[in-house]
Write a structure and sequence with these properties.
Blueprint lengths: L2 H6 L6 H8 L6 E5 L6 E6 L3 H20 L2 H17 L1 H12 L8 H17 L5 E5 L4 E8 L2 E5 L5 H14 L3 E5 L5 H11 L8 E3 L4 H9 L5 E5 L2 H10 L6 E5 L4 E5 L5 H13 L9 E7 L3 H13 L19 H16 L3 E4 L15 E4 L6 H4 L6 E7 L2 H8 L4 E2 L1 E5 L3 H8 L6 E4 L14 E2 L8 H6 L2 E7 L1
Parallel strand pairs: 5-6, 5-8, 6-7, 8-9, 10-11, 10-16, 11-14, 13-14, 16-17
Antiparallel strand pairs: 1-2, 3-4, 4-19, 12-13, 15-18
Helix pairs in contact: 2-5, 2-8, 4-6, 5-6, 5-8, 6-7, 11-12
The structure holds nicotinamide-adenine-dinucleotide.
InterPro entries: Ald_DH/histidinol_DH (IPR016161), Ald_DH_C (IPR016163), Ald_DH_CS_CYS (IPR016160), Ald_DH_CS_GLU (IPR029510), Ald_DH_N (IPR016162), Aldehyde_DH_dom (IPR015590), LUC3-like (IPR044086)
GO molecular function, one term: oxidoreductase activity, acting on the aldehyde or oxo group of donors, NAD or NADP as acceptor
Keywords: Oxidoreductase
Length: 480
């Protein structure tokens, strides 16, 4: 390699190299600002519908050879791609922290990059054999999964690297190519992640098209896309169902949630307080399956409020690049306004603010302080709507049947949780919640081998584990 080559081939395991690799040398660009400081993080390309067409054409060309490699050879390449993420992990985490706002530490940027690598590795290592359905001497039938072709991956801004990898990894494992459309709020994170894995992957197999809603809509309607993996709001999910109808696309929809947690009277408030806190405030509350409504039995209501307030008071919030912080800003002004409006509606109703609720509107960044609201009614907008920020309403209950009905009274059903010292009692309550997942004495913990998906208007289809791989293939039964 000549010194000139070194100049034109940035090293992706350094922050500057990574940023240089994804900075467009031509075409329209847009400044991406740090939500904590307002400083320019970098320039994102503004891709067009022509770019989308080119990406789909390249993916269509690359996919057959990738599929023909077979599972073992594909898995070996995917493991090398995960190694490349690990080698660039710190640079990726710094970019993610600056663009998304989340701190390096806590369950945030470094954790997210580690998750992207772990999900890729797990998808590579998960076997999916052809399954014999009947073999009784007269009938033989087996089911296996063929590649779909080109998969469209449309993602949100809250966990941009991890969620993109949740979509890319199983798609690749099953022999597909992928065109990725990141959120317009966090394109750099996804461009960087894909630049890193593309050091290893065949050309054209995974391409990022960085644009707004029109690019997402173009992907959802395109006849060259066989499946859309979508994570985002319920409203956009409904738009994608409509725009994908003409081509009968397969869909996996991971949509919004309004997860309830129920604390039974036998729970120990001091023991569960930190788990409750992170269940609600992971990623500063900007998490689909975060705890968004907490129902606590009257017997221990005051004690839980007190313990949670104590935990909230000691969790530092600030600029993500400061190693001491574990909570960050909201990612964008629109989300800040939603959170501020919902807290205002709670205050206006006479609900009690235990901590927070008083943003400093003069300070830089979209920081909303950690906020706990007690004595609030079920019909308050902060309880009915998804806040997606660092605010938790805490509601009182006395009757178990009644609280289960209240928990189930929303039209979404992503996750839920039950908190108790009695596992049998907790599981019995869990089975009555209308959600895709229920955690016991935890909330929101995901695992690459445990299927995850929503009920009701939180979407359909499963991600992760063997079920997640099946969702990225076309089932084929061979009968005979
Ligand atoms: P969003 O729906 O506004 O945007 C998501 C993506 O869809 C973006 O890339 C956007 O450009 C694209 N898009 C917008 N309009 C489109 C259209 N008509 N056709 C195709 N694509 C289009 O969501 P967001 O604000 O980025 O994310 C927050 C939401 O995502 C919350 O509701 C949250 O609960 C949900 N979420 C769900 C999960 C889950 O696993 N269920 C995970 C994370 C976030």
């Amino acid at each position: 390699m000549t010194s000139n080559d070194t100049l034109v081939t940035p090293k992706l395991d350094t922050y500057d190299g990574l940023l240089a690799a994804i900075t467009p040398s031509a075409g329209d660009t847009r400044e991406i600002l740090d939500p904590a400081t307002g400083a320019v993080v970098g320039l994102a390309p503004v891709h067009t519908v022509d770019d989308l067409e080119a990406a789909i054409a390249a993916a269509t060309l690359a996919q057959p050879a990738w599929a023909a490699l077979g599972h073992d050879a594909r898995s070996a390449v995917m493991v090398r791609a995960a190694d490349a993420i690990d080698a660039a992990a710190e640079a990726l985490a710094q970019l993610l922290s600056r663009e998304q706002g989340k701190p390096l530490n806590g369950p945030n940027a470094r954790f997210e990059v580690g998750g992207a690598s772990a999900w890729l590795r797990t998808a590579a290592a998960t076997p999916l054999e052809s399954e014999v359905l009947i073999d009784d001497g007269t009938t033989h039938a087996a089911i296996s999964y063929r590649p779909i072709g080109v998969v469209g991956a449309i993602g949100p801004w809250n966990w941009p690297m991890m969620i993109s990898m949740w979509q890319i990894a199983p798609a690749l494992r099953m022999g597909n190519a992928v065109v990725v459309k990141p959120s317009e709020y966090t394109p750099l994170s996804v461009l960087a992640l894909v630049a890193v894995v593309n050091q290893v992957l065949p050309e054209g197999l995974v391409t990022v098209v960085s644009g707004g809603r029109a690019i997402g809509a173009g992907l959802a309607v395109h006849p060259g896309i066989g499946k859309v993996m979508f994570t985002g709001s319920t409203a956009t999910g409904k738009a994608i169902i409509k725009s994908s109808a003409d081509t009968v696309k397969r869909l996996t929809l991971e949509l919004g949630g309004n997860d309830a947690g129920i604390v039974l009277p036998d729970a120990d408030p001091a023991a569960i307080a930190e788990g409750l806190f992170w269940g609600a405030f992971i990623n500063t509350g900007q998490t689909c399956a975060a705890l968004k409504r907490l129902y606590v039995h009257d017997d221990i209501y005051d004690a839980v409020c007190e313990e949670l307030t104590a935990v909230a008071a000691r969790m530092p919030m600030g600029v993500g690049m400061d190693e001491s912080n574990v909570l960050g800003p909201l990612q964008n002004q629109a989300q800040f306004d939603i959170v501020a409006g919902l807290v205002q509606s709670a205050k206006d109703s006479g609900a009690r603010v235990l901590i927070g609720g008083n943003p400093d509107l003069e300070a830089p960044g979209f920081f909303y302080p950690t906020t706990l609201i007690a004595d609030i009614d079920d019909d308050n907008p902060l309880v009915r709507e998804e806040q997606f920020g660092p605010v938790l309403p805490i509601l009182r209950y006395t009757d178990l049947d009644d609280v289960i009905a209240r928990a189930n009274s929303v039209d979404v059903g992503l996750g839920g949780s039950v908190w108790s010292s009695d596992l049998v009692a907790a599981r019995a309550v869990a089975a009555r919640l209308e959600t895709g997942t229920v955690w016991i004495n935890a909330h929101g913990a995901v695992h690459p081998m445990i299927p995850f998906g929503g009920a009701k208007q939180s979407g359909y289809g499963l991600e992760f584990g063997v079920e997640g791989l099946k969702a990225l293939g076309v089932p084929q039964v061979i009968n005979g």
